[in-house]
Design goal:
The structure is a single chain. The protein has one domain. Helix content is about 30%, strand content about 25%. The protein contains 4 helices and 8 strands; from the N terminus they run ααββαββαββββ. It has an 8-stranded mixed sheet with strand order 7-6-5-2-4-3-1-8.
């Protein structure tokens, strides 16, 4: 009579490494490299940005974005190209039925500024416009929280502080 195999023996499968901790460590390294390759590092200028408006805004929308059409961070365009791109963005915002507010993002250390538009716009639509106007990132404001959001995939969002603390009115 042939012998029966017990039913509790698992089928043969891949060999289990002798050193499970070494296996986990190697797996963690692979995961860390994959994550590092997908995490976007923002330009340092985004962390120190301040804003100014030429007129008082009675009430900011509860949620809005700040978008520019000027040269992408790290690039240099002629004044004419910047002005033309800004005019096209403003016209596009108006065409879509929005009421953009002029706001300038600037570096408090150098004073270098970039005219932008604050507009109550859904984030996905704003990111699309950012890509259309060759922007690296835009700013998103929800309540008083200011975040920088990368326009290209993978989308990354990072809070950088409060909006009102970074905003002043210049006359």
């Amino acid at each position: 009579m042939p012998s029966k195999k017990p039913h509790n023996i698992p089928p043969a499968g891949p060999a289990v490494p002798q050193n499970v901790n070494a296996y986990r460590s190697t797996l963690q390294e692979v995961v860390n490299k994959a994550v590092a390759n997908t995490v976007y590092e923002f330009h340092p200028a985004y962390f120190t940005i301040a804003f100014r408006t030429e007129a008082a805004v009675v009430e900011w929308p509860a949620a809005f974005v700040i978008i520019s059409a000027f040269a992408t961070t790290g690039e240099s365009w002629s004044a004419a190209r910047n002005a033309e791109a800004d005019e096209r963005l403003h016209a596009e915002l108006l065409r879509r039925g929005h009421a953009p507010i002029r706001i300038t993002g600037y570096d408090p250390a150098t004073g270098h500024g970039e005219p932008s538009w604050a507009v109550a716009l859904p984030l996905d639509e704003a990111l699309e416009l950012g890509r259309d106007f060759l922007q690296d990132a835009i700013f998103e404001v929800q309540g008083d929280q200011l975040a920088v959001v990368r326009c290209a995939a993978p989308i990354a969002r990072l809070c950088v502080g409060t909006f009102r603390e970074r905003t002043q009115i210049t006359v």
